[in-house]
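hey so i finally got around to running the thing on that chain from the lab meeting. sorry it took forever, my laptop kept dying and i had to restart like 3 times. anyway pasting the input first so we r on the same page abt which one it is
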Amino acid sequence: MLDVKIFELVSDISSAMAIVGCVYLLVASAVVLRFSRRRGQPKAPAVPVTILKPLHGAEPRLAERIQAYCEQRYEGELQMICGVRDHADPATEAVRIAQDAVGPRIELRIDPLQHGGNRKVSNLVNMARDARHEILVLSDSDIEVDQNYLTNVVSWFAQPDVGAVTCLYHGVPSKALWSRYAALAINAHFLPSVVLAISFGLARPCFGSTIAIRQSTLQNIGGLQAFADCLADDHAIGMAVRSAGRKVSIATSSLGHLCFEKSLKALFSNEVRAARTIRQICPLGHCGSVITHPLPMALIDFTVGGHHGLVLIVAALASRALLCESVRHAFGLARQPHELIPARDLLSFAVFVTSLFGHSVEWRGTTLEMRRNGKIQSDGNRSGVTVAPSE
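ok and heres what got predicted. didnt touch it at all, straight out
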């Protein structure tokens, strides 16, 4: 009798969560479509810009992506600095190929000096010393841009009180299967959840896809060095800008995030790192995101003999497919692989559950230990890294 009551309780809870999850996906679909139509782009003169591009390791089509930053429809003066820590880094070859194509506007800085546990930020600190212009544009290595990128981003500084500008991003897969799963996670889970959170005022994001910021503003919040031990450095920069009384604007376009995952292990590790980072930023919100997983909840209901389990499974799959189509239409993406949705939803739930436990993440071969204060401890000192003295 007790077992029956337990199964009934599990069925009631899981079915209720599946229903709430389906409603969430339907609301997200509507919000995504509305979001894409409501935003205008300001007009402003083209001002000199320095792009900082931190690099590490070989990535597919890296030279093409670097080159695209210098082939903009942008009338202002442009300086681009790429940075690595080691002369032997394979990324240096991609930089040289891009330099051969577009000339000396692309500079390469090689500097092993580390300023904290976050190696990307340390790389940015080293590059920023050579920046000549007031407007800095920080952009991750796996981001691809179109020819209107700089015009779109820099124009937002014409609005009053804007201290920084950031961009949404969507997943761009390669032909590899796990890359397609990674891109689908961004497009069917991450991107719509961010749009919904922005639309309802639940989040004020700042993304490493792009952070454009004035040097004066950056120095006012402590410089890049202030974020050298932050796991979510992009989020921390955004918070610091707002704390200084300035706004972080979100540019109209969504940028392409190249997905390179070649194995399930690499995919799972990357997604757990991202999920644990979100957990560190907003623990309650991360736990509450369980409602964004209606398919696993419907499967649980079906497994314990719930009366509506099968109907909820179909509803969850249909709602996720509708959301995929809404995102595709809103951001002009290629067709999304609907056939991967069932496995993708189950994998996303496994990532969510795993992210609730543990305090370490893997980032490009480095193990980072998460601390309660939002800082990280790198294993870098055990790998012969040169660390900058405290300032």
